[in-house]
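One chain shown below:
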Amino acid sequence: MAPEGSRVTDLLSSPRPGAADDLNDALTGAELARSRAETDVLLADHGVTYGSDDAAPGAPGWHLDPVPVVIDELEWTSLDSALVERAQLLDEVLVDLYGPRRLLTDALLPPEIVLAHPGFLRAVDGLRLPTARELVLTATDLTRDVSGGWVAIADRTQAPSGAGYAMEDRRVVARVRSGVYRQASIQRLGPFFHALKLALQDAAPAGTTSPRVVLLTSGPDSETAFDQSYLAAMLGLPMVEGSDLLVREGRVWMQGLDALEPVDVILRRVAADDCDPLELRADSRLGVPGLVRALRAGSVSVVNPLGSSVLENPALLAHLPRLARAVLGHDLALPTPLTHWCGDSTARAQVLAHLDRLVLKPTARRSRSTTVLGWTLDRAALDALAARIAAEPGAWVGQEPVGEPWATDTAAAVLRTFAVAHDGSYRVMAGGLARVAPSPSQQIVSNTLGAVARDVWVLSSETGTLPDPWLNGPGAAGPHRAVSGISPRTAENMFWLGRYAERAGDTVRHLRALVDRWNDYHHSPRSTGGRALGALLAAADVATPATWPGATTRSAPLDLRSLLLDRSSPRSVARSVRSRID
């Protein structure tokens, strides 16, 4: 359930009073409750999910509060420029790390931060996209400090998730708060997705006239399966799994029903080391064998490029100010928390001396370790953590907390922003995905811990909110290149979808006939209608009453509801619907 009160919203909204207060104060308590109930209904109707299908009952799903985070235009203009600057720096760093590596040879970065990080993939060293920017898509997580200024706490460069959720949140809130949304002047999200579509086309290998772009997914069990499918639908891209693709004669092909179809660009939502079991992670079943070889041949492009997750190493934040001065020639406009990499002996001593006041993060997201809030640990836990850091110092960073995380009257909140390469620079989504911890006691913002999403409204000086065709649903923003075929896996899924749908429909029709005749003839089993009812019961394999003509020892009280609700029965409607979903 969404947290109550406006104080939580103020953690991300502009600290200056004005239009933001007018928009969010327009709801009374009863209206807010109705809006939240309507939001929940719409999310369910749209099939918005978070988490895998095998998640435990009651596990957090996707929760959205209809009260938006509102940011004024002047503040956003400054933040937009700072995010573009940050994306440009990360792009330059990525190009150098897989190229001349001057940042290492000039001692601007300790080699261990890069070369020992699992995100650095030697198999793709020296490979480049045929675009002006190597880092096509990036996300930056922001929060506010005690002064109200923005601080960047993390970068997501592997396969940033959340853009689809952001658009779906806008779609729902624009409907629930339709009156306010139409009257307010709010910048649109559509230009970002249009720029993303162009960026994917531009990433195609040289000489490609009509690029074929696909979205590579790990499948329906992914936590962000909805985000992936929604994004693919908006961009008009076929979703494929690794088994749908193969490498032959040096290039990637999609398996169709009748023939192989060439693939030019892959928008991946699979971790890089899972993308090729031949060259990277041998036990991966999610990737495409031979993909790296096709990359070397220059016949396909992968967005973001394999190996880009090295930029997610939080140890980079400790050196980012120095990198900015060396690469850009000036300091970054968007600050980061003071970060200490424990691989440096001086920094490690600083961290160990102040463990109870720092946020401790592992340098690799796939490690067994998780973020630890030092002030929440007792002495024994602090000693155990210190021992782990001493055993693997290069695998940890200590970060100064932003704001007052121990405060009891506010909840932690994070704004994820998105930027995509566009016209030699970057275009930033006008807004993003805001997430708020469900209560002040929960100091880590995580969807798996029940974080509540919020739409982000960036005000505009233009009168009225311009219409946004993307709000009408996936695929509504104009024609897309038609998909000429489907994979055998998709065709098989469609076959079983139709089969289970037909089975459920047949059972429902059978039940309707049974109910109609039961009401009329169950008291007269020897009549013509009664005999017809008996035939229907036998066909449905439902136990008949013991007094019925021809009843056997297996007869039991009639329960037609089992044909509707019993998932253990292979003929029930519930079983067919469940099988259709699976």
Observations:
- The two ends are 27 Å apart (CA to CA).
- The mean pLDDT is 86.
- Residues 489-581 form one domain.
